[in-house]
Amino acid sequence: MTTAPSTTAPTSADAGREPLVRTRGVGRRYGEVVALDDVSLDVPAGQLLGLLGPNGAGKSTLLQLLCGLRRPTSGSVELFGRAPWEPGARSRLGTTPQETGLPPTLRVGEVVDVVAGHFTDPVPAGEVLERFGLADLRRRQTGGLSGGQKRRLAVALAFVGRPDLVLLDEPTTGLDTGARHDLWEAVRAYHRSGGTVVLTSHYLEEVEALAERVVVVDHGRVLVDGTLEEVRSAVPARRVRLRAATAPDVGADRVVSDGDRHELWAADTDDLVRRLVRGGTPFRELEVAPASLEEAFLAVTSRADAAEDDDVTRTRTSAATPVTAPTQERYR
Ligand SMILES: Nc1ncnc2c1ncn2[C@@H]1O[C@H](COP(=O)(O)OP(=O)(O)OP(=O)(O)O)[C@@H](O)[C@H]1O
């Protein structure tokens, strides 16, 4: 599986104009649990958006609202400019929920045909199966597939109807490294052909590899909404790695040592390196690097937790202060 055939290109005449998804102040409660709280988000055509957040952050709930499986308890949700629970709004949508059940006695090819039967111009079954590395399994009953093969099929089904937008909830969970990379390539190919993607993931490297926009949610609220670079900059410090007999004392903000390996954190690493050289401490294997997405993610979500702990009287509706202001304007 390499590139998506041109037949996968979205047919939407309004691509690039209206957002395909729009939420305004959307909230969803399950009894006392506030799963989503005041989320406003636009997803324009052609964007590949990664939704990140710890367990229970509200990611799946958001996707369920977007595809009309659940209704919001406050605020509004639009899919292609309509209410997502209207069947017509979903004709240009493909989804893979976090958990999918496949009819165990149907063959892989039959499942694809059943899904294709719901669309006027589906991608031919052979093409979909080829793209997701399932061509050899076409005649296998789904009950006999491995967990990873089932997951690949579940994700493939989202693309059968030639959708303009796909919502993928943890698409690569349970896949081995090779299968994960193949699936990334299929998603990238769809995106290159003009498709719009919203995916959730616990794999930060997945979001780093795929997404052009990252939205971090926690406790049902958007904490950061921006490019990968903007999310990384939520951690202002940069890091210098080196090897030396002892950690050099050059006034770093934070030093993490493991044997002769040391990590020195500072806002101005150029200045830190100058001090290091002037200090004359012997060192080797010097590396300067920005914070990784993982470090930014942990910093942002733990800051939100600390904000909650600081104020026990605060209610969920005013929980986490965004670390950077949401930047929907940029994506209109
Ligand atoms: N049907 C439900 N009934 C009650 N509470 C629910 C229901 N669905 C979700 N929740 C709660 O809503 C919150 C958000 O859950 P959600 O599944 O949206 O999070 P998530 O970010 O997708 O988590 P994960 O990464 O673990 O899949 C959690 O506290 C969860 O327990």
UniProtKB/TrEMBL annotation:
ABC transporter domain: residues covered = 21-244
Q: What is its main location?
A: membrane
Q: Does the keyword Nucleotide-binding apply?
A: yes
**Per its UniProt record, what Gene3D superfamilies does this chain match?**
P-loop containing nucleotide triphosphate hydrolases
PROSITE patterns named among the record's database cross-references? ABC_TRANSPORTER_1, ABC_TRANSPORTER_2
UniProt-annotated stretches for the region Disordered = 1-22, 307-332
Location comes to: Cell membrane
Q: Which UniProt keywords apply?
A: Antibiotic resistance, ATP-binding, Nucleotide-binding, Transport
- Membrane topology, as annotated: Peripheral membrane protein
One GO MF term: ATP binding
Q: Enumerate the InterPro entries for this protein.
A: AAA+_ATPase, ABC_transporter-like_ATP-bd, ABC_transporter-like_CS, ABC_transporter_ATP-binding, P-loop_NTPase
Q: Where is the composition biased (Polar residues)?
A: 315-332
| Matches recorded under Pfam families | ABC_tran (PF00005)
Q: Does the keyword Calcium apply?
A: no
Low complexity: which segments have biased composition?
1-13
The identity of this protein, by name, is ABC transporter ATP-binding protein
Q: What is the lineage of its organism?
A: Bacteria, Bacillati, Actinomycetota, Actinomycetes, Kineosporiales
